[in-house]
Known about the structure:
Chain A is mainly α. Helices cover about 60% and strands about 5% of the residues of chain A.
Amino acid sequence: xxxxxxxxxEPISVSEFEEFAYDRLRLLSTIELARAKGLKGxxxxxxxxxxxxxxxxxxxxxxxxxxxxxxILRLAYCRSEDLRRWFLQNELELFKWRFVNNPPxxxxxxxxxxxxxxxxxxxxxxxxxxxxxxxxxxxxxSPPSRPRALHYKVAFEEVVDxxxxxxxxxxxxxxxxxxxxxxxxxxxARPPRLPLPSPTSLLASVFTPPPPPLSHKAxxxxxxxxxxATQYVGDDYSRPRSGSAVSLADLPTVSxxxxxxxxxxxxxxxxxxxxxxxxxxxxxxxxxxxxxLPKRLSCEESTAFFRAEFTKKGMAADKFMRDYGYGAxxxxxxxKRQDWSAMSCGKIINSxxxxxxxxxxxxxxxxxxxxxxxxxxxxEGQMRATLQQMQVGAQDVQYIxxxxxxxxxxxxxxxxxxxxxxxxxxxxxxxxxxxxxNQYFEESQKFFAPKDEAA
Amino acid sequence: xxxxxxxxxxxxxxxxxxxxxxxGYGTAQLADTGARLxxxxxxxxxxxxxxxxxxxxxxxxxxxxKDLLAKLPHKIDIGxxxxxxxxxxxxxKLFEPKQRELIIDxxxxxxxxxxxxxxxxxxxxxxxxxxALAMRVLxxxxxxxxxxGPRLWRGRAAAGRAGSGRRRCRSRFExxxxxxxxxxxxxxxxxxxxxxRIPSMKCLGSFQVRGAVAxxxxxxxxxxxxxxxxxxxxxxxxxxxxxxxxxxxxxxHMLTGEAAGGQKKLLxxxxxEQIAExxxxxxxxxxxxxxxxxxxRIKSECKTPKLAAVLTEVVFTYTxxxxxxxxxxxxNHLLKSPWCVHPKTGRVCVPVNVSECEEFDPSSVPTLKTxxxxxxx
Lengths: 455, 377
């Protein structure tokens, strides 16, 4: 059980560094998905245990990995409020799990060591408020060997989440917390002690003094950290998949049937307005490339596709080539060797939001910006209307809107998938949600494949 | 709403001195001017054409009064205590709210399920008992759960207070101000230092103490059933409210006062058509039946644990205070000042004594007009 108070000082190799980071990211993503699905109690614990055993086993190396990877991710995730929250929430969940699953003696020792001493109420006090305590937090009847569960008296500010859920007895500004809920105090007490230092200072402290062989790799580490936050750890969609080649002629049908909402939206807008702005072209273009269009479409043809759509509105072809022709070559790896694999949901959600101001005003469509994740960018009314138009049932709409409110965009997308593919159960499976637009597409193709063959 | 009336009101009636004493919280005489709370408090005036003038602040009552007379605001709001005087907020790089009363806003608009016609003032006044009930329930919860409450463990508590306990136990919620909002709601201001100092965000993450308190007090609407979700056994705080306030109110107001249509809707919420119909029949046959009798009848029909739980939820749905959680959550939310004149009704937002809130009659609240008449007389 560690609060990660001191950053590690021992040097590690760069490949270890990357491996550790990925494994922790996988662990936290698993927790995130489990939480997003609303798993509680035993189910959640089982999920965390499984992921922990897989990625951070309780072995000497596993412990070192845990220790290092926490700090590496801290580095990567301290750059924005959103990322911080994501990281913190999932770390917290992991911590809670560890806390609850530690033997009581260890727990007590740990509390003592951290100076978190709480006063247990006396027997007399307990007798006096016994009934209220039971009403407030129904506990399973305690075994006869222990006549009463210990309760601790703390200021209500320290057990915020219990207060919020009305799961604790309050009197006179004090909360009476059963021993089993003690984790709540610890969890509340923890964040203030988890200052997230700026990346440079932490980098400096992680590697003080910078070991000579590492300094020339600093660049590599920096870009690795930068990318980590939006890193996608699922299947690799960086290359076009075989077997999913879609021809240009099929595009309208396929778009309607198998595109995730973000891509469908952009396709629709492209057809409607004959135009897409740069970010949208990039997001959409990469997606198209990966579903196999470029197998038929060389780089020039892809340009031709956009040109055909753009010029329908009367834009001169040469104007198109002059103003927009620059887009396709890099998408097809003809320019600088950069990573032009299709964007994952994490990337789409976090990095390509239409400017905040315009999305607040609900005007991003008006501004002609259609990239990003619709589940995040649309306001509720717009979302509802869109879903109804896509013939999503009222109950599913409600579910989706709930998830959106809870910022679980990927689960919302998963539900959208289910609603559009009657009889499929995506959320219930291990997947939980959609992690990648191309994953959505492939799942959809898989779903329709047998039916197409039958037809 | 003429400028003359407003000038008269701000000049001769508005208790600027008392306001400043309240908002100063005893710090007005401190030698260190930075520690004086009043001058770091944000005021906001709203002009007749709905323009908000934010970040006003005053060093003393004279300043406030002078500006009131100069600007003749139609509405006055009070914001948070900031790290620096809000009127110079552009000078400081770091300008953020530091303290804020815990505020609770209850408005009849949130009670639209009762099909109260909130646009018409008279009906709003008829609904005052609901507001009074909300006020009593919340005030009691604040005082007992977060405040001193009935004394517990007499001997030890007394001993503790004399000795070291004094230092350890923080101040509690005791200073609660209830203000009539001028039309159809009430505002509660919890002014104790402990409440004021609750940060809205504790460092990182979403550990919002204010939000938690609001959620603790506020109900959770279950969208599937359209009822407030209440767990059995009830939380002690809810159980107390139910026993002492909600249940009596329910049969004295909800069962007698309402027309048959309203009762039909109410009974439909039991989700048991057979029983609902029986009860409705019985009620129609004997329109003279008193609320208490009807209540007994309903209760005798709802015997199974499941139905009883639903019935409890229905009672909560109809009576439990609906507070606007968002107002309480943040520190930077403006709230209409006491003694402000409501721009639509002309009524003064007068403080209400909770122990006498039953007798309070919104329609007898002084308006600018009546004040003018009184002054002339």
